[in-house]
Specification:
This protein has about 425 residues and is mainly α. The chain folds into 3 domains: about 130 residues, no CATH class; about 90 residues; about 130 residues, no CATH class. Strands 1-2-3 form a 3-stranded mixed beta sheet, with no helix packed on it. α3 packs antiparallel against α4. It is elongated and about 160 Å long. The chain starts with a helix and ends with a strand. It comes from Methanosarcina barkeri MS. Keywords: Coiled coil.
């Protein structure tokens, strides 16, 4: 057909006019828009005659539909046949009127508008024919000439839509490709912007972590210098002296308790005898006996002479051999407990003095330095994790960018196989050539 030859001829000249060997990425949207506009202009020009034919056919259809609606019954027909014909005529004229309204040619005639119009119109035409096909069988019998006019008018639409569909189909692939390229271009622009923003943030984080590391190093050095200084050394010496005093106190307690522990079994028996009423202790003696059993280092030395009297008392129900052994242990305690008690009290006094001195020493500076170092180390670790996340995000964005570039180049190769695209770098601004 002439219009097809004309169409391909125009397409070839358009390629010559718009053919490029190299293009910058930022110029692609305008270039694609130009291609799209050229196609729309070409298609509009090539279908203008078809649309005029369509207008004329629709007008003829409207007139034939009106004639059918106004037609009078001529001839001798059964009343039921006439009634059925008129009823179905109403359906035919209604369907045709609806069809005319739906496929009215719109003013917007760019490619996508025409494609949408073609799809809607052919769908409406097929629906109209389907809905009125049965009715035509009844109207033809009574309104044969008018029905034939409507049928012929409807039939005239078919070739027009067939040719319109061919024009759209010939150009659809390139238009689809252009739109796909547009979409890929937009995604690449978004990815380039995201990568640029993420790289700026990445550089900012790197600068912050370098500053943090420097600050942490200074804090660690300050802590180390403090620990080498006289205040820390004095504190360390005081802690060592306190530990030594605590050990001396422990030994003194052990030495004191060793005089009483051998008597614990005898003391427990005397306590039971007292509680059962078989032996009576003076209240003060009972009190000291309880102390001796629970905390022997706090017992009064005067308790042991009283204890000796108890063991020497014949009223105490105890085997003679055990009494003799117990008396020896009591006499040992009487001889040594006062001196060991004195030593214990002296050591206790020394320990408490060291403890008080240690508790009153100024450890605030040390705590401050340790807290600062720990806080800086924590912030550094957190920022390092953020940087790792940024690296992963950048890698994913760059991978997606390369994927979108390949998609774009694939679409562009269908439009212009010789075209090279210079993509910008989101960091340096340098261009990278792809084809």
């Amino acid at each position: 057909m002439k219009w097809i030859k004309k169409l391909f001829g125009k397409k070839e000249s358009s390629d010559v006019e718009l053919g490029l060997k190299e293009i910058n990425f930022e110029d692609l949207p305008a270039w694609l828009d130009t291609r799209s506009q050229k196609i729309s202009f070409r298609v509009e020009k090539d279908v203008s005659g078809l649309l005029r034919e369509l207008d004329a056919s629709l007008l003829a259809l409207k007139e034939s539909n009106s004639r059918l609606a106004d037609a009078k019954v001529e001839g001798d027909f059964d009343v039921r046949v006439v009634k059925r014909a008129k009823s179905n005529r109403e359906n035919v004229t209604k369907q045709v009127t609806m069809l005319i309204d739906k496929i009215r040619v719109k003013e917007n005639r760019d490619f996508r508008a025409l494609e949408s119009f073609y799809g809607t119109a052919t769908q409406s035409l097929n629906a109209c024919l389907e809905h009125m096909n049965q009715s035509f069988r009844y109207t033809r019998g009574v309104f044969s000439e008018e029905s034939k006019d409507v049928s012929d008018s409807l039939a005239s639409l078919g070739p027009i839509f067939n040719e319109l569909g061919e024009v759209i189909q010939v150009n659809k692939k390139e238009m689809d490709t252009i739109e796909a390229a547009h979409s890929d271009t937009n995604k690449i622009q978004e990815l380039l912007a995201s990568i640029a923003a993420e790289e700026l943030e990445f550089e900012s984080k790197n600068r912050r972590i370098q500053a943090l590391k420097a600050e942490t190093s200074e804090a660690s050095q300050a802590l180390e210098d403090f620990r080498k200084g006289p205040v820390w050394q004095s504190l360390q010496n005081l802690q060592a002296e306190s530990i030594a005093a605590r050990e001396k106190l422990r030994k003194a307690e052990t030495g004191l308790s060793s005089l009483v522990l051998p008597l614990s079994g005898h003391l427990s028996r005397i306590k039971k005898l007292h509680e059962s009423g078989r032996y009576t202790l003076k209240p003060e003696v009972k009190k000291q006996l309880d102390i001796c059993l629970e905390a022997p280092i706090h017992v009064n030395p005067s308790f042991f002479p009283e204890l000796q009297k108890i063991f020497e008392d014949n009223a105490l129900d105890m085997q003679a051999q055990k009494k003799e052994k117990a008396l020896l242990q009591v006499k040992t305690a009487i001889s040594n407990f006062p001196e060991r008690k004195k030593e214990y009290l002296e050591v206790l006094k020394e320990f408490e003095a060291k403890k008080a001195e240690l508790e009153s020493s100024d450890t605030g500076k040390l705590v401050e330095l340790e807290h600062k170092e720990a806080e800086l180390l924590s912030r550094t670790r957190s920022l390092e994790e953020d940087i790792m996340d940024s690296e992963k995000k950048l890698a994913a964005l760059r991978e997606e960018l390369e994927h979108q570039k390949k998609k774009l180049l694939s679409s562009l190769s269908l439009i212009n196989s010789d075209l090279h695209v210079n993509f910008p770098s989101p960091v340096s601004g340098e261009r990278h050539e792809f084809s």
